[in-house]
Design a protein that fits this description.
45 residues; alpha+beta; two-stranded antiparallel sheet; 2 helices; 47% helix; globular; binds zinc ion
């Protein structure tokens, strides 16, 4: 188990891969910030 702080809101969450964000922030990005999500992905992979 890999627990990390969300890069957006600072909340602890169980990291399962992908962007360093908690599930609720990932969902917020999906809803509103496709360009930001793309930026984050580009900087991870
Ligand atoms: Zn978050």
């Amino acid at each position: 188990m890999d627990v990390r702080n969300c890069k957006s809101c600072g909340k602890l969450y169980n990291y399962i891969g992908g962007p360093p964000l908690c599930p609720s922030c990932v969902k917020a990005l999906d809803d509103k910030f496709d360009l930001v999500k793309k930026y984050i992905y580009d900087n991870i992979y």
